[in-house]
Amino acid sequence: MNWVPVENHEGNRVPVLSPRPGFFDSWLVEAGPPPVFTEDGIVVLYNAGNSQQVGVKNLGNRVYTGGQALFDAKEPWKLLDRVVHPFIQPELPFEKSGQYPEGTTFLEGLVHFQGKWLLYYGTADSMVGVVSAPAK
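RESULT FIELD:
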């Protein structure tokens, strides 16, 4: 698959996923692992940063979590759905140390292996973690 940036009529790039005030991804959204094509569309796992000022008060400031978004397979710039809450966030001690004391779960790699999805993520700029889920 060759990806081409979406541009407006003036040739400027157009964001397809942006931070949202009031949510866990209020400070930043950033690409995670490569997208996955499914029968429902294109699933994008992304890194999200929270701002306590305009985001989720009890999540922590500049904490990195993981989000999921679904885009249309035929019109990949069209956002179909997006999670309201992070599906992964810092909880363990090694995820809450390092550069960001509030914690980091920074999504890096996604692998389908032996009937499971393995998601590799950075933890507070000091370690790499992996979580798994059965493939459906």
